[in-house]
Write a structure and sequence with these properties.
five-stranded antiparallel β-sheet; four-stranded antiparallel β-sheet; Alpha-Beta Plaits; elongated; alpha+beta
Length: 185
């Protein structure tokens, strides 16, 4: 009987059961992963997520130590606590991964994102877009008679709020870098 349950994927120790948990138990986590800066490393890290059906909400990658050939991958993902632990353990087993930090559980951290917004409009909508941009401390990085391009730096929530306010004013295009994060202190 036990073999039958395992075959059908109903064993309580099955990795598939971890993903079919309650959606309301999902938590958002920011992971900082130090890796060797060499070809194929990013593909291996991303393959871990896609191969197991985990979602990446945000991904940023950049070299942080030129002489040491080290890059930092910042990944924002979500899942149950068991899934997050499984992701961290599997990341740590990839050979060119040096270190994995879960900034969400290790203490306070700072998250920032850069975004660009193109807002097209005339008249009152144009004036309102400029007024709101000032409130959000957005910089105008390009201007034509028909549009503005704003640069906004801040938390993902600030970026989302700015986008929500610009949509009715003529938001036509948006680009986001993804989250960059460091622990405080």
């Amino acid at each position: 009987m036990n073999a039958l349950n395992i075959t059908k994927g109903t064993s309580s120790k099955s990795a598939y059961n971890l993903r079919s948990g309650h959606a309301d138990l999902n938590e958002r986590h920011t992971l900082a992963v130090l890796v060797a800066n060499e070809p194929g490393v990013l593909a291996r890290v991303i393959g871990l997520f896609s191969g197991r059906g985990y979602n990446i909400e945000s991904l940023t990658v950049a070299e942080v130590d030129h002489e040491g050939h080290t890059s930092r991958i910042t990944i924002v993902t979500s899942g149950t606590p068991q899934i997050i632990e499984q992701i961290k353990a599997q990341l740590g087993r990839i050979i060119p991964v040096y270190d994995v930090h879960d900034l969400t559980v290790e203490g306070p951290s700072v998250e920032r994102e850069l975004s660009l917004f193109k807002v097209s409009g005339k008249g009152e909508k144009r004036v309102e877009a400029l007024r709101l941009a000032d409130v959000f401390r957005a910089n105008v990085v390009d201007s034509t008679l028909d549009s503005f391009t704003f640069e906004v730096v801040g938390s993902p929530e600030k970026i989302d709020a700015f986008a929500d306010l610009m949509r009715p004013l003529g938001l036509s295009e948006m680009a986001r870098t993804g989250v960059a994060a460091l622990s405080r202190g």
